[in-house]
Design a protein that fits this description.
- The protein is about 55% helix and about 10% strand.
- The protein is built from 17 helices and seven strands.
- The protein has helices at about 5-20, 35-40, 45-55, 60-95, 105-110, 130-140, 200-220, 225-235, 240-250, 255-270, 280-285, 295-305, 310-320, 325-330, 340-355, 355-370, 375-390; strands at about 100-105, 125, 145-150, 155-160, 165-170, 190, 195-200.
- Strands 3-4-5-2-1-7-6 form a seven-stranded mixed β-sheet.
- The longest helix has about 35 residues, at about 60-95.
Length: about 400
């Protein structure tokens, strides 16, 4: 679909060559280096492209080459700091007897040809739910600042300038669209040689990674990393592991989604035939950012609201007056009673009135974005999600 003589096609060729450790083809005259860099930075993949660029005889000129080199150097430095922090956290947690399991990019990057090929926003770490309170204190004692402490199954901490760590108490929140598939059972984790350190089976690592991208696509969208990760994990698996992975998706609503991720990976990185059935998805993945397009979240929420009319007015009303289950969860109400709902709605509005400037600005931005969304934008997002297998 994306010819190597196009900017998008050459960008994908650079990634393919890096992942397969192949000699890349020299840049065609039709390709613009600056445009390729813009795509790469938008997708947080400029460092991955660098592994191919270094092998070229005709590299980008002057300042562009220096800039790209600097992008890679920063990514490699951050990767090293994160890997050192993972070792540090592992030691600090386990010597106190806390069971841990590293998740997502922390494990996936181990299967890349080089770990610094795979950028990572944060370190994801699973602990047992009963350890939440003491671990919050431990993180502060280790030099972390609290960042987000009320996000369901996650506590987030930051250690400036580059370390950000999310402590998970489950893989997915209760409102995850497929929570029943993606809740972690500690009894199914594998013990490692290090006491208190657990890991997923390879099959679960792949399966839960797809679950992470389902969540992203449902909430904010996703970019090419979903395809690259799946390609790397799939091609690192044995034939038996591949068979087991496919069995995990059988008879689930996610089978088509996973099949389509692998189909696109085959088209982009294995020269598989492209029958055109995923054209919209391929364009979408390359046009967006790593975690979706800026400003598209509201369109996604309209789609995911599962209201046939997709009415903006009804959507806004539902955001102001959410359903009872959301209210009970928000206020941690154990004894659920419908008579409490009007009071909880009122409490929610009062809290918003007295909330900080940042929260109010976020609400105003969401309202403006919903108001400005065109029917064409909503239709496009709907088409993409149907095509990839999520609607």
């Amino acid at each position: 679909m994306f010819n190597i003589k196009s900017n998008e096609g050459y960008f994908l060729h650079l990634i393919k060559s890096a992942l397969k450790d192949e000699q890349p083809i020299e840049k065609p005259d039709e390709v613009n280096w600056e445009y390729v860099l813009r795509i790469a930075e938008r997708q947080n993949a400029a460092n991955l492209c660098w592994f191919s660029i270094e092998k070229l005889n005709n590299k980008p000129d002057g300042e562009l080459y220096t800039y790209w080199q600097d992008v890679y150097a920063k990514a490699a430095s951050k990767c090293l700091q994160q890997m050192m922090e993972i070792d540090f956290l592992s030691e600090e947690f386990t010597k106190r007897g806390y069971d841990i399991c590293f998740l997502k990019g922390s494990k996936i990057r181990e299967y890349y040809p080089s770990p610094d090929m795979r950028t990572m926003t944060d370190i994801d770490l699973l602990v047992r739910a009963q350890d939440r309170k003491p671990i919050r204190e431990l993180m502060k004692s280790l030099g972390y600042e609290e960042d987000l402490m009320d996000d369901g199954q996650v506590d987030a901490f930051k250690k400036l300038p580059v370390i950000y760590t999310e402590i998970h108490y489950d893989f997915s929140a209760e409102n995850h669209v497929y929570h029943e598939y993606f809740t972690i059972d500690w009894d199914k984790l594998v013990e490692t040689q290090t006491p208190h350190v657990f890991e997923m089976t390879y099959e679960d690592l792949y399966f839960f990674n797809v679950g992470h991208y389902v969540k992203n696509m449902s909430k904010v969208g996703m970019g090419i990393r979903s395809i690259v990760d799946c390609f790397v994990l799939w091609n690192s698996a044995s034939e038996k592991q591949k068979e087991n992975i496919l069995k995990k998706f059988e008879n689930t609503e996610l089978k088509a989604f996973n099949d389509n991720l692998l189909k696109i990976a085959g088209i982009w990185f294995c020269d598989a035939d492209d029958d055109g059935t995923l054209d919209n998805v391929q364009h979408y993945l390359l046009e967006t950012k790593t975690y979706g397009k800026t400003g598209e979240n509201e369109a996604i929420m309209l789609i995911e609201s599962k209201q046939n009319d997709k009415s903006k007015t009804s959507f806004i009303i539902r955001r102001i007056f959410p359903k009872s289950e959301e209210l009970f969860k928000r206020f941690n109400v154990k004894r659920k009673n419908v008579l409490l709902i009007p009071f909880l709605w009122l409490a929610r509005i009062i809290l918003l009135v007295f909330s900080g400037k940042e929260k109010k600005e976020k609400v105003k931005k969401e309202y403006s974005a919903v108001k400005d969304i065109s029917s064409q934008e909503i239709e496009y997002e709907t088409i993409v999600r149907k095509e990839i297998g999520l609607l």
